[in-house]
Amino acid sequence: MSMATxxxxxxxxxxxxxxxxxxxxxxxxxxxxxFAGRSNAxxxxxxxxxxxxxxxxxxxxxxxxxxxxxxxx
Length: 73
What we know:
This protein has one helix and two strands. The protein is of the alpha+beta class.
């Protein structure tokens, strides 16, 4: 008898928006999780791994390619 793997609660994550200025930020909707770190620290790779999606967050070999805040839901 094999045990079933529980569903990934993050698998339904999707891109919401990119904010260039504070007025473009989405309204407060409750709990949030933030990924912050230096360029090439693996933030996008970690997000893709957590959600089980290969291209939710773009991964680049060139540092500093995302000078804005990306939001996912």
